[in-house]
Amino acid sequence: MSEKMKEILVDKVTVNIGVGSPGERLDYAKDLISRLTKSTPIETLAKKRNPVFKLRVGLPIGAKVTLRKKTAYEFIEKAFIANKRFLRAGNFDKHGNFSFGVKEYIDFPGAKYDPKIGMFGFDVCVTLKRKGKRVQERRLRSGIIGKKHRISKDEAIVFAKSVLKAKVEE
Questions:
Q1: Closest alpha carbon to 61 in 27, 36, 103
Q2: pTM of this prediction?
């Protein structure tokens, strides 16, 4: 397999804010996430009913944005600055993807505190891929990707350290 096919790339970055209930706070969260990412957010819906928290299936409880290509790399860079470039080995899953949280949006470069919005944190989920991943994901004639071509947790950690310049605590 050629070296170019083994190169690890960022497929997408998903930015999520979970509020827990519809209403004014959800609108503020959508406004905040659109300011940070310069993209239009979509609402995330409750999947389970929970009468204790007054949740029912289909109720909007959060907002998310998916970023790809150049905007994804730019957002990861800013999010790492807010997180002090620190990741734990537990942030990585067995497929090589990783997630981390930013506790307060004011840590994000260029974000200013807005008293109307209040304080929110958000989650950043980074999905990694190699060229050829589409073979597994396409609808027609989908195939299986071999074990040597899949991204392992260790390869993702090396990628985060070398390309994204993150400090990973084992």
A1: 27
A2: 0.82
Query: Quick one: 40 exposed, middle or buried, by C-beta within 10 A (0-12, 13-18, 19+)?
Result: exposed
User: To which H or E segment does residue 111 belong?
Assistant: none
pLDDT along the chain (170 residues), means of 10: 80 88 84 87 84 79 90 88 82 88 78 78 88 82 85 87 80
Under a CB-based contact definition with an 8 Å cutoff, are residues 129 and 123 in contact? no
CATH of the domain at 117: 3.30.1440.10
One-letter amino acid for residue 78 of the chain: K
| Rg (the chain; Cα; Å) | 18
Q: Quote the pLDDT of residue 45.
A: 85
At 39, the amino acid letter reads S
The confidence score (pLDDT) of residue 14 equals: 92
**How many domains, the chain?**
1
Q: What is the DSSP string of 28-77?
A: HHHHHHHHHHSS--EEEE--S-BGGGTB-TT-EEEEEEEE-HHHHHHHHH
Residue 52 located in a structural domain? yes
In a domain, 139, yes or no: no
